[in-house]
Write a structure and sequence with these properties.
Layout: H1 4-8, H2 12-24, H3 30-44, H4 51-65, H5 69-82, H6 87-99, H7 103-116, H8 121-133, H9 137-150, H10 155-167, H11 171-184, H12 189-202, H13 205-221, H14 226-241, H15 247-272, H16 276-291
Helix pairs in contact: 2-3, 3-4, 4-5, 4-6, 5-6, 6-7, 6-8, 7-8, 8-9, 9-10, 10-11, 11-12, 12-13, 12-14, 13-14, 14-15, 15-16
Length: 297
């Protein structure tokens, strides 16, 4: 089989730089990383200087994604020789055990790391990942809450907690987690959209009104967010259809829903330029609008 450098006519320096770019931009293109990284390690290790160690780590993680335990083991062996007793290398060893579904051994390894360094966030997150993989959502939620008591500013952890609560249908706590996210990052349209979806799922006029407002906010932050546009239409439609709201509230929400419906139709028309698939999609949208008894102006 031809090498990467021969197939694509690239030098080892270009391959090294490509791996660096993927690291810096957090790409999860594991197959490509394995393809490029394996050749670099096997053919050019002596030329890489200190870069070899971060490349070993990068290639090892990608190899675990690709079920290449042979390559992962090779990388781990070299890292263990160079960094004996390193918590970072121990965590990588734990990740290999996870990939092999030896969860109890991995859990013990992470606990050993935390005994030496209770502030090691990576080890704590790996423990939570194991609990999720084992389907132990209650334990994962407890661990995440304990983690967030110490690291309250970790946005990734708050989002993970919200997802776990949603999976457990605990929407009130999911909403609280998303509120924490929006406080620290109010300009993220995806957080606004997900919060709106949770409030919509909770139901009730008060929650539906909050849902409509946050779908609108998501659209304000990103006017191409079609999911938020559909959410705005549905939340406004449900409010307008409720017998508990006043005539003014009904009238306002009919207007909001009609505006959203017209924007949905316009988006589909612009996206497809008259293709057969678009015409089918438009028909489906129109049928949905008719079923709600609200037509675009």
């Amino acid at each position: 089989m031809a090498s990467v450098s021969d197939m694509y006519d690239v030098t080892w320096e270009e391959m090294r730089d490509k791996l660096r770019k993927w690291r810096e931009e957090n790409y999860r293109n594991s197959e490509q990383i394995v393809e490029v990284g394996e050749e670099l390690i096997q053919e050019h290790a002596s030329k890489l200087g200190d870069d070899i160690w971060i490349i070993y780590e990068q290639v090892m993680i990608a190899a675990l994604d690709c079920s290449r335990d042979d390559l992962a083991t090779t990388c781990l062996h070299e890292l263990k020789k160079q960094f004996q007793g390193s918590h970072r290398v121990k965590r990588l060893a734990g990740m290999r055990l996870e990939a092999l579904e030896r969860y109890d051994e991995a859990f013990k390894m992470y606990n050993d790391i935390l005994q030496d360094d209770s502030t090691n966030t990576a080890a704590r997150k790996r423990k939570i990942a194991i609990l999720k993989a084992q389907g132990k959502s209650t334990e994962a939620i407890r661990e995440l809450n304990e983690y967030l008591e110490q690291f309250v500013g970790d946005q990734e952890a708050w989002h993970e907690l919200a997802e776990l609560y949603i999976n457990e249908h605990d929407y009130a706590k999911a909403a609280f987690s998303l509120e924490e996210l929006m406080m620290t990052n109010p300009h993220n349209h995806l957080y606004c959209e997900q919060y709106a979806e949770v409030k919509y799922t909770q139901g009730g006029i008060e929650n539906l009104e909050l849902s409509r407002k946050y779908f609108a906010q998501a659209l304000k932050l990103n006017n191409r967010n079609m999911r938020a546009l559909f959410g705005l239409y549905l939340s406004a439609s449900h409010i307008a259809a409720s017998p508990k709201v006043s005539a003014k509230v009904k009238k306002d929400n009919v207007k909001y829903a009609a505006w959203a419906a017209s924007q949905i139709n316009r988006a589909y028309q612009l996206a497809g330029h008259g293709t057969k698939e678009t015409k089918c999609s438009l028909k489906a949208v129109e049928e949905m609008l008719e079923s709600m008894q609200i037509m675009p102006s």
